[in-house]
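**User:** Everyone, produce a chain:

**Assistant:**
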Amino acid sequence: MPVADDDKTMAQPELRLCPHCQQEMLRWYTPPDSTWGTPYQYVCFNDECGYYQRGWEWMQTKYNKKASYRHRYNPYGGDSGPVPVWSVTALRERIIPEGMSYETYVMLQAAPRRGQA
């Protein structure tokens, strides 16, 4: 998926702050087979964020599920909301490292892993 040059956070970096805890959100590589329609989104991975912490009890009470959610922001469409998580480490494997371009991250994800042919 090509990277659009309309990522609103480039012009407005304050959009990268979680509205629930004010911590900077991280770029999260959107799964290619998802319906998100964007190459990446910004997600709050602060484990102390009240939105994330309250989510565990809310999901247990409302749905009897051991799950929570983290705040996410779509820098292309401007929409935001929850992204579900089932553990503290869920989704972290798709964080695009700081300073790494989206294109480099995608290329590294497509490269064969050591021991795989």
